[in-house]
């Protein structure tokens, strides 16, 4: 098949491409390099099954493809809040353009949505039926509401135009190739511990998240894309940790003497987040296989190499 990956030079997109090319597919990687990085796709640059297009999806594009994995959007709060209007445009106009493309060429369309559609959840763990508790005018809204309208668009194209859609809701994911300045908690703690600066815990560190290793997530993507189920489907690791527990895990793996510094909790920071993955388990026979300790070790190795080579 010929497969388009928007955001293909990003953290998750590039791991997805690493799976698709060895399976024999032709891959078109589309990226505007806002948070994507050429190093992530360097190894495919001269490969006959790979094509790179520098393009911003807020502008239309004409391509002939069989499947579209639509991942393009900054996903870390630091990056998506840097230019919130652009984040909204990427989710609204970008998703419209990609759904228009899917409709024209009759491609299957996969939307990378997010656990952020649940906002600061009132039910725990979150099932796909839960409609969320999202602030429409807060600093996270450009992403949360952006992804909610992206889901609405996908389902309207499905009902109105018979576009063949698949929708996943991704919970916190980590692994090699996260940007050093990504701003999210796993990469922040690892970079801080490796550089010998204090680990910045926001609030009292009692808020929780569930961390999924990137290869597990990509396996779930491929299973959903090639199944008959439309979604939405939660993909994430149900293991729930407080942020303070995560800081201690990183300390134990890198430097038990690393300091912890408490900083103010950002606005609208969700208190708890944990996926209910019953749907993924029963419909896709999927569940995460990499425990946090193991995934952290693999991620730390990758950061160690990059930080060493930068010095
Ligand atoms: N966080 C933290 N220190 C950091 C970065 C994040 O304590 O250096 C906290 C943040 O306040 C949130 C959790 O870790 O409660 C996860 O934040 P992240 O930005 O990774 O993703 P989110 O799940 O909020 O989108």
From TrEMBL:
Domain of life: Bacteria
Subcellular location: Golgi apparatus, Golgi stack membrane
Membrane topology: Single-pass type II membrane protein
Key words of the record: Decarboxylase, Golgi apparatus, Lyase, Membrane, NAD, Signal-anchor, Transmembrane, Transmembrane helix
The keyword Transmembrane belongs to this UniProt entry's keyword annotation: yes
CDD domains in UniProt: UGD_SDR_e
Membrane-crossing segments per the record: none
Start and end residues of each NAD(P)-binding domain: 4-297
UniProt-listed Enzyme Commission number(s): 4.1.1.35
Family recorded in the similarity comment: Belongs to the NAD(P)-dependent epimerase/dehydratase family. UDP-glucuronic acid decarboxylase subfamily.
Name assigned to this protein: UDP-glucuronate decarboxylase
Organism expressing this protein natively: Anabaena azotica FACHB-119
